[in-house]
Specification:
Layout (H helix, E strand, L loop, with lengths): L2 E5 L3 H10 L5 E5 L3 H10 L1 E2 L3 E5 L4 E4 L2 H5 L4 E4 L6 H8 L8 E4 L12 H8 L6 E6 L4 H5 L4 E6 L3 H11 L4 E6 L2 H23 L4 H21 L4 H4 L2 H12 L4 H10 L4 H6 L7 H14 L5 H11 L4 H9 L7
Parallel strand pairs: 1-2, 1-6, 2-5, 6-7, 7-8, 9-10
Antiparallel strand pairs: 3-4, 8-9
Length: 331
């Protein structure tokens, strides 16, 4: 595989373009905003989403989807979850049966409750698509700096997984394979919900004890949901589960954690979202996660309280108090 199209020019898409540029003969990065794309072409820097990092000359930047996808062998989609269906619908005329699709978006579609790989498959019914999910503990800035990074690529097709693994892996970017896209995608999506709770805890001035408890119990409810949906419990003990959860709940670069911190400090959600250039996926995912929990009859108390806090004006302090006052039970 020699030709890569990266669809989505935010911080994560730009970082992936930087780290994968040496692995492909040609990389094209599609950026939605035409002005951002033009500046990137001229200055080789994404000043809007990932300032301070040089985009290699091998990466061609465009705001034209047709140009980005022309002759691509691998399509790596990195747009926000609520844009995936719309962007893939626009991509339809340029998609071919031979293309390999890798979804690096972490989230759920709110109204359909679909995972990202399911959306991609549902958009084009002309032929079966080769789709895999890419997830793991990653902050864009650290990946762009070339710091060692480990992720998981997941699909039921082991040959597809190994081809992507071989194409993407390099000196600082290591991929493991998994046959469990359900577990990988659910882990990548719901960890953002738990991270909002971690931010609330930090913003309220609590220490490490409660953070560790939240991460542990958060992992338990993510695992329950993934298994109920057909995923594997061991997947959630790995990079796309525990690894990503720990990073997002404790890292200073976590946007979802920051949302929780600001809520605990008394700011309104609309004000917080309005001040952010980049998307905090956990806000929309919380709504979808609650619906999934109801659909699969899975108990997810942390997720439920984050939903009450985000959508029904329950205060952060009351949400934490409700969790602590739940009926006592065996772990």
């Amino acid at each position: 595989m020699k030709r890569l199209a990266v669809i989505g020019g935010g911080a994560w898409g730009t970082a992936l373009s930087i780290v994968l540029a040496p692995r492909f003969e040609r990389v094209r990065l599609w950026v939605y905003e035409e002005d951002v794309a033009q500046r990137m072409q001229a200055n080789r820097e994404n000043d809007a989403y990932l300032p301070g990092f040089q985009v290699p000359e091998r990466v061609s930047v465009t705001s034209d989807l047709r140009i980005a996808l022309e002759d691509a062998e691998v399509v790596l989609s990195v747009m926000p979850s609520h844009h995936v269906r719309r962007v893939y619908a626009r991509m339809l005329p340029s998609l071919t049966e031979s293309m390999i699709f890798v979804s690096a978006t972490k989230g759920l579609e709110v109204h359909t409750i679909l995972r990202m790989s399911e959306i991609i498959r549902s958009v084009d019914g002309r032929f079966p698509l080769q789709v895999a999910a890419l997830s793991g503990p990653t902050f864009a800035k650290e990946v762009a700096r070339g710091e060692p990074t480990a992720l998981v690529v997941a699909s039921p097709d082991d040959d597809l997984n190994r081809r992507i693994q071989a194409a993407f892996s390099g000196p600082s970017f290591r991929l493991y394979t998994s046959p469990d896209p359900i577990g990988v995608e659910i882990g990548g999506a719901i960890k953002n919900v738990i991270a909002i709770g971690s931010g609330v805890i930090h913003g309220m001035g609590f220490g490490h004890n409660v953070t560790a408890a939240l991460i542990t119990r958060g992992l338990a409810e993510i695992t329950r949901l993934a298994v109920a949906m057909g995923g594997r419990a061991q997947t959630l003990a790995g990079l796309a589960g525990l690894g990503d959860l720990v990073l997002t709940c404790t890292g200073e670069l976590s946007r979802n954690r920051m949302v929780g911190i600001e809520l605990a400090r008394g700011r309104k959600l609309d004000e917080i979202v309005g001040s952010m250039r980049m998307v905090a996926e956990g806000i929309k995912t919380t709504d979808a996660a609650v619906e999934l929990a109801r659909r699969f009859s899975v108990e997810m108390p942390i997720t439920e309280q984050m939903y009450q806090m985000l959508y029904h004006a329950v205060s952060p302090r009351e949400a934490i108090q409700r969790l602590m006052e739940r009926s006592l039970k065996e772990e």
